[in-house]
Amino acid sequence: MLWGISFDATPISGVVVEFVKTARILSERGYRVHLDLGYDVKADKNAFFRPYRDEAALLPDWVRLARIDGLDAVAGYDADFVTAVLREVVQAGDDERLGPRIDAVAEQISRRIVDTWRRFGVSFVLVENGTLPENITYTRALYLAIERYGREEGLGRFVLWRDHDLMWQSEPGAGKYGTFPYPQAVAPADSPHIQYLVQHAEARRRMLHWQPDLRHLAVLPNTFSASPAVVDEHNAAFRRDHGIPAQALLIARPTRLIPQKRIDRDIHLLAALLAHPRLADDIYLFVTGDRAESPAEYTRLAAFARRLGVADRVVFGGWLAPHAGEVGRPAGRGYSVQDLFAHADLVSFLTSGDYESYGNPIGEAIAAGVPYITTGYDLYDEVYGSAGFQAPVMDLAAGDLPTPDFVDAVADLLGDAETRRRTVAVNHRLGARRLALGRRLVGDLLDGMVGPATAPGPTPGPTSGPTSGPTPRPTLRPTPMDAGIRMTVVLPVYNEAANLPAVLASLYGQRGDDGSPLRVRVPYEVVVVDNNSTDATVDVARRFAAAHPDLPVQVIHEGEQGVACARRAGMQFAVARSRARTDAEPARRFYLVSADADCRVDPTWLWELFVAMEVGKAAIGVCDYYYRAEHFAGRPRLWAAIDRTLRCRAVTFRLFGGFPDGKGFAVERGAYEKVGGIEIFYQVQDGRFVPHLSDDWDFGISVRGSGEEIVYAPRSRVEINPRRVDHALDEVIAGRAYGQGGTIVMRDIRDPDLAVDRARDLTAAQARQAWEFSVKDFTPKNTILPVLLTPSLLDDDAVADFFTPSLARRLGRRIAEIIDEMRVVDLTPIHAYKTPSYRLYFEFADEIFARLRATAGSDIGLPPPLPTCLREVPAGRFREFVRYYCEDRESGAAHDYFGNGGVF
């Protein structure tokens, strides 16, 4: 049985709707669903201890309303006590008078919670908004109850604790809940029974800043069913019932009538639009919300509308039921937000900058197929703007009320039906992938939680509904690693449902050199790390695991977005499980292997990599990578640029071993642990920290810098998915495949909406530009960096033969001079090795390219033209200005000169 507790204390709200979405999944799995609306938790809604009336009619019929038995009998616990604690303890920070009483009351409440859960046979709990410190007494009691009930019933993680409003998101300017580190708030407990959920990466970052020890914290955004709102039999009379002409333009403002929502901005905007020269004066504004919630605010807004002369165009329509697609139609003739959207031409969300954390009306508008406008509130870009959603955005830095430029932008959208149609098409396409992902993500989280094998037998009371029902299915647990496993293949996945069956089949079909199944000869396992996929990726992986029991396949989840984060999570998962084995032979080497879900591996890929690592006793084994030439048939100029890059890489990999690429490499477990594993570097992108793309590369540099060897396994081959070129062709040509201006980011080449023209070849000028960026990216990293990190390589006969003995000696001397001049102690950090690599490239480019022509083919040609500024310096001062160029502008001009054409 699922028990829900909403700290919102209202019969229906965005918080309750999110509960319904999650509970629906468990209901379909056979769980009975009960919901406590939190009337006995939050004091400011004037419903404390009030009996339920007709609230159940607002919810699906499979949700039963319930509450904790006997709370009204807890001595000293009432609305006045809760209000006093918020005022004196949370806001004023003085717990001298109420502190002991809080603890005593919390203990009594916790016992009543446990007794109620036991009576109902609860096996899952979903807490909504529990961290907001409106009632810290109840929150403390809930944590006590979770620990006691989980321990006594033998449960694992049986609680989903989701936060919609944290202190830094809910009116932080007012300081309602104090300031960081929020000493009076009940800090989240790192409990073995709780999986925490927050709505976006910024909330996760702040939560971990507050409580860095939380291990089970995932990102789960609010989600919306992508169901376009339409005029139908139920809502056809909506305009007539509210006095809105059929042909009038309608702006919808679905919100509560409270000051923080800044509805005065919408009234001001309406007045400006009615006077706009490009619009007719037939425009209405519909504002939802209960007038009784804040009568003073309603009075103020009505007076403001009269003062601006638009009172006859503002409809205060009252409370509407939530989006009907989530909770069903309201009973009787009541209307829902979706009914409003069916008649609206525009949805407005001109909220306060610091009030909204997610912006549900925007998501609802996108799902319903209506264009929207918004303020650039604090987290708009985090949730919507950075994802590419299109809308006029009111810049709060430009003014507190809509500016003329913003009014013009809204008028352009509102006055042109075709512009609205195109905007809706873009937003709905993005929303279908980004906002309608709840069922899969929640289902995956539920499957990853450790619940009971069977639910406790219920002994329900009179309000609990039927006494029988299907036993909840057991959740999946990672199986222990067998003693014989020698390798774990880590496969990060994000929206790879289409590619995953073939990838997993190729991993299952790995063979030894004698053609026998490798899983028998050298046992290995696969760890699929889901990185917040919004498609059927996880279902595909689980179905494959069930159909192939002779290959261990584990599926885990990593909530922090980014392939680097997912790869690290999988490798650390494998390290921990391999170390936990007590019967494995300690002398046998164990390997962590990275694979990529959009590439294909040859049948002996894993065997050849394993043999190279075993024979060479190297720390890292690097694969060979290739494209199928037939994919580029009819595109000779593009293929020539790719082929030249691959030939250069083959030369340097044979000489130096190369550096690992996430598409395929292996690392010995001890070497992995020696350097601290994969480190996630962060960079600033659009004002926010995001994981750096090159975790695999930087990890290899750390291993080589620690004195360990890297071996190249040329017969361990990975076929690169050509979409890496096809989907980013324009960026490849211009050297922006992975970013520019010092920022290196992963382009989402999985996006099916990116234009793909597989018949397109390059012009001669484009081919030259693409090759120049590719070779400029390749040469410093693959030809110069290995000897910069390990100068002793220049003493190797094969390396000296490649460079020629004379060039090898001069390179060695110059490396020593630059390191001494720069006072570099450790070259492994990215901004320590880039500058000297760039400097050496410019100083020795002509000679290095001569050696590449001699070994990789004459078509390698001459070095690309120098930057204009370096062509103009006196020959005698070339080195001097190279230093200025590479050091002072490393994250600007030099970075963009070398570009990121290495996507080949």
UniProtKB/TrEMBL annotation:
UniProt-annotated stretches for the region Disordered: 448-481
Biased composition (Pro residues): 455-477
Domain Glycosyltransferase 2-like per the UniProt entry, residue ranges: 488-652
Gene3D superfamilies: Glycogen Phosphorylase B, Spore Coat Polysaccharide Biosynthesis Protein SpsA, Chain A
Name assigned to this protein: Glycosyltransferase 2-like domain-containing protein
UniProt-listed InterPro entries: Glyco_trans_2-like, Glycosyltransf_2, Nucleotide-diphossugar_trans
Pfam families assigned to the protein according to its UniProt record, in alphabetical order: Glycos_transf_2
Superkingdom per UniProt: Bacteria
